[in-house]
Amino acid sequence: MQILLNGEPTATDARTLHELCLKLGFGEAKVATALNGSFVAATKRATTELAPADEVEIVAPRQGG
Fold first, then answer.
1. pTM metric for this prediction
2. What is the DSSP string of 13-60?
3. Most buried one in 5, 15, 59, 64, CB count within 10 A?
4. Quick check: 64 pLDDT over 70?
5. 65 in a domain, yes or no?
């Protein structure tokens, strides 16, 4: 299916937000996620299903200052 990932059209076969994070190599990394503009907690990713044309944001924290 086609989704919008961080503003870029992306093809994926992931069915959940958790599966997408794993496929993208985030695994156990501390990241913030949103689906269609709404924050999704890490504990809810495995049950958050993706659909075609969904807008997904995945943001990793940055260090420095």
1. 0.91
2. ---BHHHHHHHTT-TT---EEEETTEEE-GGGGGG-B--TT-EEEEE-
3. 5
4. no
5. no
> Could you read off the pLDDT of 5-61 as tens digits, one per residue?
999 999 999 999 999 999 999 988 899 999 999 999 999 999 999 999 999 999 988
**Can you read off the two tokens belonging to residue 23?**
């496929």
The two structure tokens encoding residue 37: 């503009």
Q: List, in sequence order, every residue forming a beta bridge with 1; answer none if it has no partner.
A: none
CATH label of the domain that carries residue 17: 3.10.20.30
What is the rounded CA–CA span in Å between residue 54 and residue 41? 17
Q: Tell me the CA distances in angstroms from 14 to 23, 46, 54, 62, 64, one per residue in order.
A: 8, 11, 12, 26, 33
